[in-house]
Amino acid sequence: MSGGSIVKTPFHSGFISIIGRPNVGKSTLLNSLVGEKVAIVTPKPQTTRNRIIGILNLPDAQLVFVDTPGIHKPRTKLGQFMDKSIQDAMKGIDALLVVLDASKIASQDRSIVQDMRMMKVPKILVLNKIDLVHPQELLKPISDFAGAGYDAIVPLCARTGDGIDVLKRELISHLPEGPAYFPDSMWTDQTERQFVAELIREQALYALQEEIPHGIGVEILSMKDKSDEMVEIFANIFCEREAHKRIIIGKQGKMLGSIGKKSREGIEKLLGRHVNLQLWVKVRPDWRNTPEDLRTLGYAD
Ligand SMILES: Nc1nc2c(ncn2[C@@H]2O[C@H](COP(=O)(O)OP(=O)(O)OP(=O)(O)O)[C@@H](O)[C@H]2O)c(=O)[nH]1
Ligand SMILES: [Mg+2]
Is 140 among the domain residues? Predict the structure, then answer.
């Protein structure tokens, strides 16, 4: 007679950094993997400014993703902070996702793919935005990168989620056995205040054109519960010039009104309560090079 034994399925866990050029869809991929809106997404490059953690909890695994700013040459102290966020996100990780926009593979992408070979962790190359290319167009990058030292090449569409499950299974198969690092109810390490500031910045980025978006920062001045159903939020939008301030406010305050309305809708969804949002626009010339302003806006360690 043989006794029954309980075979415990192994639990896998690990930190996985998501890196790539600006605008390739890293934050969209993070949101899609986690199934929540963790990071803001806009069509403007350099949307993400700091390291953002998103956690996927599964019965057999906990995947901790680290979204990063797009790799670029820093030109301001803010840029240096973003660069450092990328460097920090590469430390102590268990796996790496290198993301490319399959519809626009450029020489910088090839350099990034090449540079990341030195990372001695499992690496997966993600060809994102496959909705924008004919399937046959994927054959060339797949064969070009086949010998690049990656453990897998996964084509997917972060926007629709097509191919995301393949990526999840692939990642789990490469992660070490280990414990959950965070409680299984947690899906990010960002505070409500940080989220709210990001949602306002997202709407400002959507509304504004040309060079203004890079000079936008959002400071939450206060968040107060007015009742069980109502939160009052005061926030400053920083910009770098009087001319930018005029554009952000718009004719008869129209632009600011629209940024405020859309931000409020996003914040209400996040908090599940009514929001009274008051926005002010402040000119801070060169805040991107001013350590005190960078601290105020949360771009400091
Ligand atoms: N068509 C298509 N667009 C996508 C896809 N994934 C992301 N995008 C779009 O690409 C743009 C950039 O997406 P983000 O997720 O902000 O890109 P990012 O790499 O995080 O950009 P940075 O934070 O600036 O480095 C947005 O307009 C997204 O909607 C996709 O699978 N298909
Ligand atoms: Mg991003």
Answer: yes
Do 83 and 222 sit in the same domain of this protein?
no
Residue 157 CA: nearest ligand 1 atom is: 31
Which residues are within 8 A (CB) of 12 and not within 5 positions of it... i.e. 6 or more apart? Answer: 60, 61, 62, 172, 175, 176, 177, 178
CA of 5 to the centre of ligand 1 (A): 48
> What atom in ligand 1 is closest to the CA of residue 156?
31
CB 253 within 8 A of CB 245: no
Annotate 177-208 with b (16+ C-beta within 10 A) or e (fewer): eeeeeeeeeebbebeeebbbbbbbbbbbbbbb
Mean pLDDT of 16-30: 98
Residue 4: pLDDT over 70: no
CA 147 to chain centre: 29
* Cα 165 to averaged position of ligand 1 atoms, centre (Å): 19
pTM of this structure: 0.95
Which residues form the domain of 135?
12-174
Report yes or no on 1 lying in a domain.
Answer: no
**Domain count of the chain?**
2
Residue 3 pLDDT exceeds 60: no
Question: Tell me, what CATH number does 205's domain have?
Answer: 3.30.300.20
Mutate to test the pocket of ligand 1, among 28, 134, 214 (most ligand atoms within 8 A of CB): 28
Please name every residue paired with 277 in a beta bridge, in sequence order, or none if there are none: 233
